[in-house]
Amino acid sequence: MLSERMQQLRSIILDLDQISRYIPTQAITYEPDARKPPILRKAEAAERVFATIAVNHLPGEKLAGDNSIKFAPRPDHLTAAEWNAIRAYPAGVEEATLTAIDERIFYVWAFIEGHIIPDKQKVLQRGFNGVIAEIETRLADPALTSAQRDFLRAALIECRGVLTYAARHARYFAALAEAATDDEVRMYYAELAALCERVPAEPAASFREALQSCGFAHFATQVDDITNHSLGRLDQYLYPYYARDLERGMLTRDEAKELLQEFWLKFNLGYKIQEKLGVDYSWNGRRVDPFDAHDGLAWLALKAIDRIHFDDGQTLDLAGLDENGEDATNDLSRLMLEVQAELRTFEPKTVVKYTARTDPAFLRQAYALIATGFGMPAMTYHEAGARALRSYGTFAEEDIRNLSHVGCVEIGIPFKSYTDPMNSFMNLPKIALVTIGGGYVQGRRVGVETEPPRDWASFWAAFLRQLDYFVGLYTDAMNACTPFYARYLSRPLTSALIDGCIESATPVDVGGARYWSRGLNCTGFATCVDSLYAVKQVVYEEGRLSLDELRAVLDRDWTGQEELRQYLLNRVPKYGNGVAAVDGLARDVCVAYTDAVKRRRTPNGNPYHPGIYSFYQPIKNMGERTGATPDGRRAGDILSLNSSPSHGAIRNGLSGVLESVTALEHSRADNAGVVDVQLEGQAPPEVIGYIATALAGRDVTYAQFSVVDRARLVDAMAHPENYQDLVVRVTGFSARFVSLPRSTQEEIVRRSYWGPSE
Fold first, then answer.
1. Is 302 in the same domain as 183?
2. What is the pLDDT at residue 226?
3. pTM of the model
4. Beta bridge partners of 412
5. Is 433 inside any structural domain?
6. Domain extent for 52
7. Considering its fold, how many domains does the chain have in total?
8. pLDDT of residue 753
9. Which run of H or of E encompasses 736?
10. Residue 308: what pLDDT?
11. Closest CA to 747 of 376, 306, 291, 279
12. Taking Cα atoms as reference points, which of 213, 218, 222, 214 lies closest to residue 70?
């Protein structure tokens, strides 16, 4: 039950008109000095925000500050000449790469923002004064290069800017306290002023100070970077402050819960802005086509999201194992699920770290929340994730134990890793089409020219060759563009809170983190498997038509061949039904893809990390540029999501789906591997628990549950006014169904349908 104070705060924060009355929209200006390095200008632009952004305070708040960066975005730090240089970058890129991007076989996101877990525990334990002292000590090294010195100076500027930001809050509250005529009001503001005077400058000494320091640090790194920063194992590093305050009688559990609720709500301030205004694909005042391979600005656009997007990627992991390998569930873990259940906000996004030792009562609490249809928490299976990271032989066991999720479902090491987890989504079905065309698609040379395969074995070999070619094309392009874009774009404050960056005097984006890798996900996994199996059966086993005849049919998008399409669609076995032969091919595709990715190296010699993870937009916008496929899919239709079966492919119910998806070695796809579990709207917690436990016995790294009634979704599309609070799981996040774009709504309805394909 929410208190009156929390109900008021929630109603303000989740209403754009109300929140806009408290947080003004600002246009903060900064004039870049071309004589200074871009990284210093970036720091100065962030410093300008810290020094001028309005100090906002909502009625009754006991914690200060907010993530109002979306109301007052950081000003541009680059010159017009630098933006022109970025726009012109693709002019030097080989045509084969531009062709692959244009065909949407893969994307390139040249500078990834967010998707990282800055070290808030360091801020809690040492304060920003401690971080500043560490930077100043490192700056005293005479052996530093000019680039290293520029990075450290930039980090120092921003760290001091954070203290300016907090000090401005302290002065604001002190002035209100001095002006107050009521003793209770005076004390209220004086406490807030004292809180901001202490943290985040100094180490936190109480639960309230820990929440305040953590909040300031989180919002400050958003000014430096973007909103998409995750929280790691928040229940673990906040727990000592919580437990100590309760033990000393300084705080009751209910008081702590209300502080946590307020802290939780602050992560949702930007949600309604995104719901209404969406994502702005413009740079330097120029709107950009995110799919224009010849425009270097388009290489900065994340194609995995829609223009209307609802996710700030502020994920946190609960429970798991402690340093002794025992269950790490604590009362703060339970409290956080209670807070999420009562507030029902979309941020932060909880993920339960399932282990064989996790408290069963805590798991039941999680299942009960999932059963409400809220889409959270997700479940991650620690042993499979740990097995994945151990396979590289480079991760310390203590860090593997702390593995957490960044953005949505991607794996990272809190405080220590850079993973670039959401960069590309390799279009596997289109690679299958390139294979059928011997390197060509609709007459255009796209891949490697190959001879017509004589049999299935030679076709499979040709597919592997095309797959390896495109993976290599992508990784070469990414390795080449990284240093160029890093000349202009950086995040010095965030880097200072990632282990290894200050020590190496190197920003996180160019190798400063202790663990540094890049991810490479794939789209349309099931569409590809079903297409390959169709080729195997109808061309090489049944001889129903030749490969060249099949190619011609696909090029015409089934014109005059509806009977053949229906045969392929509904009579040829599909992945997702527990058919051994199809599942065996799915395993082969999984191994082939993950091996091809892991063979590639980043510029600093680390392997790329593969993912079988599609997100919600690539399955649409890649599908738009993918012709008809041998599984019976029409040209331009949506591709399959994550490791899930294609829409309309399920014939044997949930058991068949789980049999197929768990046939894969998910730990091979360690950047991100997702099992989507779709249940009818009245699924009880016990059923969810049964499925979660069954998945724990297989090589599954991550599962997300949707409990939804398809009939309600269809009715909500027709009568949105009646379903304002209907929540659905989109991919790695949840959103109000009626706020989603029509195409996303339609995809969610289609994935909830288990019947014959059309």
1. no
2. 85
3. 0.95
4. 404
5. yes
6. 1-87+117-224
7. 2
8. 54
9. strand 734-736
10. 62
11. 306
12. 222
